[in-house]
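User: Second chain of the day. Same drill as before.
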Amino acid sequence: MAGPGQTREWITRNELVGVDDLAGVWESIVASDQAKGALLNHALLALTIRSQLPFTVTGLHGLLLLHGPPGTGKTTLARGLAAQLAPLVKDGAVRLIEVNPHGLMSAEHGQSQQRVSELLCEQIPLLADDGRATLMLLDEVESMAVARSAASLSANPADIHRATDAVLTALDQNTEAHPHILTVATSNFTEALDEAFRSRADIAIQMPLPNRDAIRAILTTTLRDFASAYPHLDELAQAKGLGEVAGSLVGLDGRRVRKVVTEALARRRETVVDPSLLTITELTAAARKLKKQLKEASHASS
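Assistant: Same format as last time:
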């Protein structure tokens, strides 16, 4: 059995989330209304129908998969989903449990399987034993549901198979025994995920790199958020040149796009002291420099 220290290492978050919690998290992710709507609808459907009908009828595992490149907002959107579900479920709150799959994996023979089984079949159900709607977030799930067909011989494939088998067994067990538990998994590398795991997902939603319009929306939102303290930046958020800046950043993920604003502010001591002095020219220069640095880094690593 795991000791208290190990449990804390595996479970990084356990809290009740209401409609007023995690304010702005869902809205902060620039994704299509279709993708967000599908995620919310499938989550609510899984929580509603699985408690009324057996798995043999619904075929629902209560597993939602968000996949795509790093920095596209998968984890943040999953967290925001809890707040979106809160007003739609009994008691007006959702328990949000975040799991660190990396902490489950062990080099010791048989330990990974034991830890996965203990966490998913014992600890999570125990935390959710009051029957309240629970969202369990498995971030970067490819670390614990490795594609068994591609398991490296040097990485103890027997243990990899056992750990993945434990994940699948837990999903099957929980969908019957604990229909109030919803699992949202994120993956940066879907090709590394086991096919049997992917087939259990009620829906798989791709989170692609943002296009020009999405990048502009991210920059606009970021500048307007800054404008709450520095009102002049609201004008910059509406500048015509912002479209050109967005175009120069195509190919970058949303996380890096947001950092362009702080990169631009850091270019001059004056804008560090007073961010309201930031100009579209400086924003453009920062965007071009960042894109160039990332391109050079990519060439150096290839």
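The beta strands are 11-18, 63-67, 93-99, 134-138, 181-187, 203-206.

User: Great, on to the next one.
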